[in-house]
Design goal:
Length: 335
């Protein structure tokens, strides 16, 4: 395959179907599958284990777990266990979560940068099979190591990626992480600012931006019927326009549209509200922040994200035909 490409799965399909899609993606040359864990719908770890156990070569990443609800020692033990299932194929993707969900479950996300730095530092040390004593503001470990009774006792090759969106978290990612999971539903031009921050962070650590991998989530709705493809993406776009207006504005969406949608949608939005707001979202906005349309159109859009800094598109399939999307990118996106 000429170009790196990966699959992104959330909770739209049964786990049984998801496993089949991952196996099919592996057979078509996809590099990795990333399993989401965002809302209180589907845990990432159980699907990751299922994917790891039923494939041979494809990498399996969390896209992303959060750094608040699991103790970092438990995170390290979990990913060591996954690495037992699929040696050298596991990626730990971790993010800072989001409000109001975090608040609703009793978590106050103060000092997110410090919390992320502490968690990543400790998880990496434990996976390196070090004995760790660490007393920070959020993480407290005293003389802790992973207790491997059966299996490989050497350091584990589990790279840590941070799902960063804001500029400060992006800079931290450039400094301390193996890679950045760049967000979706942003325009390719949004990546320019992200790259600046990643470069600045990498410089702090004395390394090159080429040492920071940059896979990017990309919403991908592909159909030979262009209208059908756009309509499949419009619902998700509409929800993000209402829930994440700051990201949408940074991507070039006009404030007037954001204001209109904000008057229609609440959180959590009802299906009726979403349907009403969808009528306000034009095709050009859908195509600005997603790869939606015919196979040629979606490949062309993905090339824009790569041209602006992404190293591996992580394609989030919308619509009924997941295999069509996989087939569309089976030979990369340069064709």
């Amino acid at each position: 395959m000429a170009d790196r490409v990966a699959l992104y799965l959330q909770d739209a399909h049964s786990l049984q179907d998801a496993m089949k899609y991952v196996q099919y993606a592996e057979s078509r040359g996809f590099e990795a599958v990333w399993q989401a864990e965002s809302r209180l719908v589907r845990d990432a770890v159980v699907p990751m284990a299922a994917f790891a156990a039923t494939t041979r070569n494809i990498k399996v990443g969390s896209g992303v777990i959060n750094n608040w609800t699991r103790n970092p020692a438990v995170i390290a033990a979990t990913f060591l266990t996954l690495d037992d299932l699929a040696p050298n194929r596991i990626i730990c993707g971790i993010g800072a979560w989001w409000d109001p969900l975090a608040q609703k479950v009793g978590i106050n996300r103060e000092k997110p940068l410090l919390a992320m730095r502490e968690v990543v530092t400790v998880v990496r040390a434990l996976l390196a099979r070090e004995r760790v004593t660490f007393h920070g503001e959020y993480v407290h470990l005293t003389d802790v190591e992973l207790d491997v009774v059966h299996g490989r006792k050497e350091p584990r090759n589990v790279p840590i990626y941070i799902g960063a969106t804001g500029p400060k978290m992006m800079a931290l990612t450039g400094e301390i992480a193996d890679g950045a999971v760049l967000n979706y539903l942003v325009s390719p031009q949004y990546n320019e600012g992200a790259m600046e921050q990643l470069i600045a962070g990498a410089r702090v650590a004395g390394r090159s931006i080429d040492q920071v991998d940059r896979p990017q989530l990309v919403v991908c709705s592909v159909d030979d019927d262009r209208k059908k493809a756009l309509d499949a993406a419009r619902k998700l776009v509409t929800q993000y326009l209402g829930q994440q207006p700051h990201i949408m504005k940074a991507s070039g969406v006009k404030q007037e549209l954001l204001d209109e949608i904000g008057q229609v949608l609440t959180w959590p939005a009802t299906e009726e509200q979403i349907e009403d707001a969808m009528r306000l979202v034009p095709d050009d906005v859908v195509q600005m922040i997603t790869a939606s349309g015919t196979p040629d159109e979606v490949r062309r859009k993905v090339r824009e994200y790569v041209a602006n800094g992404a190293t591996c598109p992580i394609l989030y399939p919308l619509g009924d035909d997941v295999r069509l999307m996989i087939d569309t990118f089976a030979n990369g996106y340069s064709n």
